[in-house]
């Protein structure tokens, strides 16, 4: 046998040996796989590697944690975060538009940031908290705006109660201790671009807290931290407490909710007279009847009114 023939014969034997080793390895792996599958059959809680991979691909992402779910609150008449073309949706679109225009393009005559907006009323029960929530949701639907909704009724925090966060620390704690990081008290919601600051612990010195230097520095922080932010305050009634007029002195805009057919005009005038800058005040007519809408806005189902700035005819 020549040298070349001997070399070819040797290479053939080495190739055959490698093939035999590979076959044994594949056989061993197949055997292990059979044992693994059999174990799964005996223990239904386990999954094979392939099953686990397929399950992970098919699963949708786990939703982010939220502190407040508006969808689960089941509050009648609350706007849907997805928006729509209902009468209520359109009414709040008209309510928010002048506020937004003024907040980011208006003339600041009073010296306060125009993106700080307070929602109040002359008396209790006129629907200011309901209006605050719907206005916040409507503004959050904007393509390029974010909203921070604050319960600033430190003595009787109805917004926190409706949102089921009365037990959370919030605005009161931030005003009592200027060294606290305000961001740690903000609550996430299931409405994109809408966060909430609860009222926190009830305080009998709410007026003094709202009039403090800490309040001024906190508002400066809130108004300037994000350029696209609207800060919406749910406030106590103007004629019921002293806190509301103090809070209004810090605001760039004030929206006064008026109950249709319920609040006498002289009380509305008295409430507005307590505000420092009447040019920054707007009225929102609330709880109107269908016959009123039919008479004033025809068949559209929603309308635009007049007041100290503008008004909107709402359902509640």
Total domains, how many?
2
Q: By helix and strand content, what is the structural category?
A: alpha/beta
Mean pLDDT: 78
Cα-to-Cα separation, first versus last residue: 106 Å
Figure out the total of helices.
12
Task: Count the E strands.
Answer: 9
* CATH homologous superfamily classification of the largest domain: P-loop containing nucleotide triphosphate hydrolases
Name the shape in a single word: globular
Known CATH architecture of the largest domain: 3-Layer(aba) Sandwich
Q: What Rg is obtained from the alpha carbons, in whole angstroms? A: 32 Å
CATH topology of the largest domain: Rossmann fold
Q: What strand order characterises the main sheet?
A: 3-4-2-5-1-6-7
| CATH class label of the largest domain | Alpha Beta
The largest sheet is:
7 strands, mixed
Question: What share of residues is helical?
Answer: 40-55%
Strand content bin: 5-15%
Note poorly predicted spans.
28-63, 296-316
Query: How do the helices and strands follow one another from N- to C-terminus?
Result: HHHHEHEHHEEHHEHEHEHEE
Characterization of the model:
Helix 4 crosses helix 5. With 316 residues, this protein is of the alpha/beta class. The C terminus is likely disordered. The chain is built from twelve helices and nine strands. It starts with a helix and ends with a strand. The chain is globular and about 115 Å long. It has two domains: 56 residues; 243 residues, P-loop containing nucleotide triphosphate hydrolases (Rossmann fold, 3-Layer(aba) Sandwich). A seven-stranded mixed beta sheet has the order 3-4-2-5-1-6-7.
